[in-house]
């Protein structure tokens, strides 16, 4: 059978959608001729692009791409079809959008208040003393907050330490590089921008009031072993036989997997190999630049707060699917996420942004899915490394997690990306 053109046409479809809504393609490191070809001619028609996405999904059944690659492309094409439909003016509900763009079914999902109460009880144990739990948690956050005048030094120290750990445990090309930028008045805490070759810029919000443990998780998420590392290991070598590997589509099911992997990154490289214990290590790194962090307590608090992550998704559903308003959503965040009103409103800036309204799901469902997939693996670091070798759709990770500790991906999944030794020492 001749090579399938579906992967190439998937890339062209995404690049054409990006002409209509810049930002859908976050990164393209493949053949520049494909981008030029997609840019030629009159502006694409969204309805026609939606039809193209449906046609390409149907054609996947007749290819010899294998189950892993086919499943990945099918999920991505479903997302592109949804994005094209929205651009064509079709009404797409929030739950439908999340299902298509992130492979997550939120139909019928309701706040898990029993889970939230259990997390509150755990926090109550960790933070004893006078005052209400929200007051004690606020006091803890203030104690652990990174002073703004030391933020840059703290970021630089964490970058260096996490780079060293990531290089030793996962592998990095020699000439990769991250530059740091501090910004203000953003609806997000951090953002990675790929600059070409093996270089990225990590932008950190200077007015987000990040705790020491939060900052460590953010640097791990954005750089090592998160988004920058993925960029180096997945797209550091151009694969003409795998054009889809050079493309990052936002939003898409792959976003959920990569965001989940980035969120799990600190636990993978920061503590004992593939396990807990990152808190004391982070405290030691930050102490060298004069930033206080109660490592063991910070790690325990972060573990408890992780159980409250779905509260943010509740707020999105309340706003976009259940007729609530911003005040209702802010009240829900204050009650269950235990944040002051100002912080709740800041979270809602992201949730109400038309481009990012569904993206909260990637952080809530993505990390939970990747952690479930990693749990029980004989070597969690080695399993984490496979995420850079073969892109998997969320449904494929769920199937692998359900199959037990030895399953990495669906049948037929074999690493196809570069190993550390294959990554070039100079930018491509």
Automatic annotation (TrEMBL):
Task: State where composition is biased (Low complexity).
Answer: 398-411
Region annotation (Disordered) ranges? 398-428
Note the superkingdom of the native organism. Answer: Bacteria
Name recorded for this polypeptide: DUF885 domain-containing protein
Record organism: Pseudonocardia dioxanivorans (strain ATCC 55486 / DSM 44775 / JCM 13855 / CB1190)
């Amino acid at each position: 059978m001749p090579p399938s053109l579906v992967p190439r046409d998937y890339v062209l479809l995404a690049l054409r959608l990006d002409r209509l809504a810049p930002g859908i393609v976050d990164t393209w490191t493949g053949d520049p001729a494909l981008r030029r070809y997609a840019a030629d001619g009159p502006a694409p028609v969204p309805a026609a692009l939606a039809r193209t996405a449906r046609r390409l999904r149907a054609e996947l059944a007749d290819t010899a791409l294998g189950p892993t690659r086919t499943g990945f492309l099918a999920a991505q094409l479903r997302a592109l079809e949804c994005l094209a439909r929205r651009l064509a003016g079709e009404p797409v509900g929030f739950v439908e959008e999340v299902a298509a763009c992130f492979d997550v079914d939120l139909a019928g999902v309701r706040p898990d208040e029993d889970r939230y109460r259990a997390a509150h009880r755990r926090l109550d144990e960790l933070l004893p003393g006078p005052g209400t739990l929200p007051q004690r948690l606020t006091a803890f956050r203030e104690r652990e907050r990174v002073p703004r005048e030391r933020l840059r030094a703290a970021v630089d120290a964490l970058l260096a330490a996490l780079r060293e750990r990531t290089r030793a445990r996962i592998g990095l090309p020699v000439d990769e590089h991250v530059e740091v930028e501090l910004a203000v008045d953003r609806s997000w805490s951090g953002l990675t921008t790929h600059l070409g070759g093996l270089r990225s810029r990590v932008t950190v919000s200077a007015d987000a009031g990040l705790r020491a443990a939060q900052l460590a998780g953010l640097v791990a998420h954005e750089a090592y072993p998160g988004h920058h590392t993925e960029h180096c290991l997945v797209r550091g070598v151009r694969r003409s036989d795998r054009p889809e590997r050079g493309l990052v589509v936002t939003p898409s099911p792959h976003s959920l997997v990569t965001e989940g992997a980035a969120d799990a990154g600190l636990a993978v490289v920061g503590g004992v190999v593939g396990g807990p214990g990152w808190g004391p290590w982070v405290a030691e790194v930050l102490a060298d630049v004069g930033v206080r962090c109660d490592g063991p307590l910070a790690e325990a608090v972060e573990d408890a707060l992780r159980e409250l992550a779905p509260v943010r998704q509740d707020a999105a559903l309340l706003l976009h699917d259940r007729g609530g308003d911003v005040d209702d959503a802010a009240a829900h965040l204050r009650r269950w996420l235990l944040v002051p009103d100002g912080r709740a409103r800041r979270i809602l800036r992201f949730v109400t942004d038309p481009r990012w309204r569904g993206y909260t799901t990637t952080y809530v469902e993505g990390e939970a899915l990747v952690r479930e997939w990693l749990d029980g693996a004989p070597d969690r670091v080695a399993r984490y490394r496979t995420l850079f070798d073969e892109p998997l759709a969320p449904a494929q990770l769920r199937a692998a997690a359900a199959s037990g500790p030895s399953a990495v991906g669906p049948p037929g999944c074999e690493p196809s990306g570069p190993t550390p030794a294959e990554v070039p020492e100079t930018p491509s």
